[in-house]
Predict the structure of Phosphonate ABC transporter ATP-binding protein.
Amino acid sequence: MLKITDLVKRYGSGGDPVLKNLDLTIEGESVVSIIGSSGAGKSTLLRCINRLVEPTSGSIVLNGTELTKLSGSNLRAARRKIGMVFQGFNLVERLTVMENVQSGRLGYISTWAAITRRYPKQDIRRAYELMERVGIAHYANTRADQLSGGERQRVGVVRALMQDPDILLADEPTASLDPKTSEQIMGLLRDLAGELKLPVLINIHNVTEAKEYTDRIVGMRYGRIIFDDLPEKLDQDAMDRIYSGSPHADRGEDPVAAQ
Ligand SMILES: Nc1ncnc2c1ncn2[C@@H]1O[C@H](COP(=O)(O)OP(=O)(O)OP(=O)(O)O)[C@@H](O)[C@H]1O
């Protein structure tokens, strides 16, 4: 379970916080999308969870571990359990698919084993299982730069799953893909969440896909969650509330009360 309580993020010393006393709980294997205007704080929220961004205050507990208090080897161990899928795939282009996928095991295996590409047998077996599952096993020895966007994102998904994560975070995973490929990746994320009993949190701009492929939609407006419900509850009124306003107009006031 992921439980975020009273999360605040302020970049720099002055100015308005980008995340304003935000609460969010994700239980079980649900697929949750975060929608909202550009600048609403969606990426910041995801990055606070894996501590790529340092929260200013508040609590983020993943399966009983308070992530905001960790440092050093404890932080590295906790990060291993948080899989991340990126908009730009973040693959090492000149390495093969297998090498990219195995980089999800860094931190679990010795540096020497990683450098010499002596991956443990069980890691190779797991990589093939997952690559088969997402349809890229035949590319195991192909360089990443020879793959299409959709194939690269499948590599990104397998790399994240190789971490044996407790949660998968996806930051605009389909924004660089054509509409058909985008739907395939969203379908894959939804199906994998069910098969692996994994919660998935997806930052996404495409509301149609959020409604179709996720179990729950969280709508952010300038640092606050102002909608959190089933996809079918996201009506025009809710959309207007999520996508109206500006950071300036919302400063220091409750955007819901301000309607
Ligand atoms: N490293 C940073 N330093 C300072 N300000 C930042 C930094 N990263 C993000 N911000 C600011 O925080 C706010 C929220 O940005 P964030 O990227 O989290 O929003 P978002 O909802 O993900 O937007 P988008 O949909 O465009 O990616 C924006 O005003 C942005 O300019």
Residues 253-259 have pLDDT under 50 and may be disordered. The chain is about 35% helix and 20% strand. The two ends are 33 Å apart (CA to CA). The beta strands are 2-9, 19-26, 31-35, 57-62, 65-66, 82-86, 167-171, 200-203, 216-221, 224-229.
